[in-house]
Design goal:
Elements lengths: L1 H26 L6 H9 L13 H10 L12 H13 L3
């Protein structure tokens, strides 16, 4: 009888916690900025860290936030730099 009680208690507790997590995932949802993915696709993807960021994803996030300039990306070609500048100007936050 003790094992049955323990199993039922764990099932009820698991159900309650599952419902709370489901509600929290809806209420606390944070939409990501799709511009970061677009800019990341335009960067060379070497993840060299030459710009002072841990990789191209960090550089893309800072570019979108306006915290840095594309000139810091050394391996990026001039055409790609111009494309990123044009994209950010067209899709301002």
């Amino acid at each position: 009888m003790g094992i049955v009680k323990a199993v039922l208690l764990m099932l009820v507790l698991g159900g309650i916690i599952g419902i709370l997590l489901g509600v929290a995932s809806v209420k606390l949802y944070v939409e990501e900025d799709h511009r970061v993915e677009e800019v990341l696709a335009m960067l060379p993807g070497y993840n060299c860290g030459g710009c002072g960021n841990p990789g191209c994803a960090g550089m893309a996030a800072k570019l979108v936030d306006g915290e840095t300039t594309i000139d810091k990306c050394k391996p990026c070609k001039a055409e790609a730099k111009q494309a990123i500048i044009a994209y950010l100007a067209e899709h301002a936050g």
